[in-house]
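WP5 quarterly update. Target: Peptide ABC transporter permease. Source organism: Alteromonas marina. Length: 343 aa.
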Amino acid sequence: MIQILVRYCTLFILTLLVLTIISFSLAYLFPGDTLENLTGLVPQNEIQRAALEKQFKLDQSYAFQFFYYVGNLLTGDWGYSFTSGLPLREEVGIAMPATIELATYAMLMALFVGIPLGYYAGIRCYSTSDHLINSTSITTYSFPVFWFALLLILIFSLQLDVAPLSGRISLIYDIEPVTGFILFDVLLSDIENKSLALKDALSHLALPTFAIGAVTTASMIRITRRSVIDVKHRPYIAAAVSRGLSSWQIFFRHILRNALLPILPLMAIQITTLITNAMIVETLFSWPGIGNWLIQAIYQRDYPALRIGMMAVSTVVVTLTILVDLFNRLIDPSREKYERATV
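Structure tokens (predicted):
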């Protein structure tokens, strides 16, 4: 157990080190002058340039600049946005929870809809209902997420007018951000008509969450169905049938858990897909998440925001992926034996 934790901590630190090196190098890879990319200022003379270079340690070696950059990251001094003039730490702290909120609700949709449908399709494999579920999941999985989101906007927002087109909540509600999750912030607020504000926030969440979650749900259905079918053809299932166990006993005693174990490691892969899709959908629904924030930074050439945004998104993805994989390793220690046997 200790060896596994040490291994994962080492992997986490080394991955973050590589990401930090890439993030640091972006200041020199962006087009234009490095000093202007970092400060947003154009030196008027050599004296001003020398003063700015000394302030941002550009007159030192690359190694010293890198350690200075790492120190600023660790202390929370991430710089300022050229566009808003606000600290990047505050802007990322506002935008990142909005993205995580969409990805979380989409993952819950995939878990509570995709896995039960996948189990049902696997148990009833090659039946009419299985073909219907499988065909629907394959079709949904084939949709590009941006096209599917535009289709939802066209139907439910523009034609039927049953869902808002953009934003997290109507402007008539003044919700102070506390947790960064709009539903929790509404519940924690002291505004009047809290139920109406909560209903309005849910209506804004519906379309972007469904646009992201539909693709992930379709993928989860296919993965679960395949896992259940594989388990059904194992020798211990045939032995359970020969002992006279009912279909429900076989399902709950043998199929349920054994089919779930291969699914859990694949959830770590879905995290990257979820956050990527969330960042794409945010730009279509004007959702104030990290994806929409980065797109605006690209348009306005806000290079410090791009550098910190890349670092923040990568850190969240790496952290969640490693935590999910570590959780899978803890609940299924047999994976260690099999992985070592296949090396």
